[in-house]
Specification:
Keywords: Cytoplasm, Ribosome biogenesis. This is Ribosome-binding factor A. It comes from Aquisalimonas asiatica. By secondary structure, this protein is of the alpha+beta class. It has one domain: K homology (KH) domain (GMP Synthetase, Chain A, domain 3). Helix content is 56%, strand content 18%. The chain has four helices and three strands; from the N terminus they run αββααβα. Strands 1-2-3 form a three-stranded mixed β-sheet, with helices on one face. β1 and β2 form a beta hairpin. α1 crosses α3. The longest helix is centred in the C-terminal third of the chain and has 25 residues. It is elongated and about 70 Å long. It starts with 5 loop residues before the first helix and ends with a helix.
Length: 125
Amino acid sequence: MAKQTPRTRRVAEQLQRELAETIRDTVRDPRVGSVTVSGVDVTRDLAHAKVYMTVLGEDAETSQAAAEILNGAAGFLRRELGRRVRLRTVPALKFIHDPSFDRGARLSSLIDSAIDEDQERSSDN
């Protein structure tokens, strides 16, 4: 990714906050569930934004399906953002599943199992 300017960073942070609220309040599709917007990357010209998201408590396939549903609703979400955010042009949105939550949960379970195995070994001795 290209170097972010302070303006693009501020716009990305504001879009992340507003998108999280907009999705929570206006998207009524039950397949979307509890979406977490983990990050937004905005191009330097503020024309496009990649929105990284995941569905809490669901597997990667469900989160990927939710990303496709949100990509279908991107025009609606862009219009809603235009009403909430004071920008000359609201960036075109592209939703992408963020696998970092899945990796974090997997690493956490690996650590827990290693601790359990270590405790079993120490109790056997």
